[in-house]
Amino acid sequence: MKLLRECIREMLNEQIDMQTIADDLDNLSVDELMELWNAVVAAHGRKEKEIKAGFSKGDKVEFDHDGETITGTVARRGGKFVSVNVHGYGKPWKRNPSSLRKI
User: Fold this and answer.
1) What's the rounded mean pLDDT across residues 76-98?
2) Interatomic CA distance for residues 57 and 89, integer angstroms
3) CA–CA gap between residue 59 and residue 72 (Å, rounded)
4) CA contacts within 13 A on the Cβ side of 11
5) Which residues fall within 8 angstroms of residue 47, CB to CB, at 6 or more apart?
6) Band of the pLDDT at 11, cuts 50, 70, 90?
7) Overall average pLDDT of the 42-65 stretch
8) How large is the C-alpha radius of gyration of the chain?
9) Mean per-residue pLDDT, 45-58
10) CA distance 91 to 94
11) Whole-angstrom distance, CA of residue 42 vs CA of residue 46
12) Is 29 exposed, middle or buried (0-12, 13-18, 19+ CB in 10 A)?
């Protein structure tokens, strides 16, 4: 497992492209793949929380839906989603925080 961490650090320091990393996955053991998967899931969760923390109730935001830009106001931040009130719609839209942009 220590070897995997060193390998990942080396790849990141050299800024190897994603295709090279994907090709190298075949060389990992099942245990190393599980460790890598868990690390990616944890990093993704941290990044989502960081993005979501940037939104507060009342913030004006926009997002894209079916080629159209929708504007609304943050109603609340939930576990995985941010609820956005959009004028003209009865219910709030549940959106992934990474799809929202502050106005």
Assistant:
1) 89
2) 18
3) 8
4) 16
5) none
6) low
7) 84
8) 19
9) 79
10) 9
11) 6
12) exposed
Residue 28: φ, ψ to 5°:
-90, 150
Q: Tell me, what's the pLDDT at 16?
A: 67
Residues 6+ apart with CB under 8 A from 83: 74, 75, 76, 77, 92, 93, 94, 95
Interatomic CA distance for residues 66 and 30, integer angstroms: 40
Cα 91 to Cα 34: distance, rounded to the nearest angstrom:
40
Calculate mean pLDDT across residues 46-67.
Answer: 85
Split at pLDDT 50, 70, 90, the class of 41 is confident
- Taking CA atoms, 55 is separated from 34, 76, 88, 92, in Å, by 32, 9, 22, 15
Give, in words, the CATH class of 60-102: mainly beta
Annotated domain spans of the chain: 2-53, 60-102
66: phi then psi, degrees, rounded to nearest 5: 50, 45
